[in-house]
Design a protein that fits this description.
174 residues, 2 domains, three-stranded antiparallel sheet, globular
Amino acid sequence: MGDPLVSDPDEVARLGRERAPEHWSLYERLLARLQANDAALLSSMDETLAGVIAQIDCTTCGRCCVHMGPVVSEGEAGRLAAALQIGLDELRQRHLQPMWPGAEASEQIWLLPDPCPLHDGRLCTVYGDRPQVCRDFPQAVGADPAERLTIWVEMARICPITFNTVERLLSTGA
């Protein structure tokens, strides 16, 4: 399936920054087809992503955990607290940050900061209980097609899976 994949996170970071103009050009070229839900393009995107995911073990990288600060829902916070064997208040105090400091507790949205305090440098210490957004990355499950490609292009300098997916889409002329 094409050229060998780039799996070294440092090389992905370098190449992702270097290739960003071409990646954004691909996005601009495909935008109208994405907005029209072009079935052939969507299928090509899914097949390309699946092929790359089959060849790269994301648990050997962890860059997303260093560079992203995802929202943690109330249910996810409870699951994380249970996995860490601490209370919800302690989880918020030790591991989460408020999106809106000073807001009423009932109105607050909680984030895992970046770098994620639940990551040990290479692996998630609560992998089985991680938030849904972490489970869905880099597939961008639920996002509309244009948003999915936006996420892939933005993350191509961070994630070996998204970098190689975008590179493969470029090379096939998607």
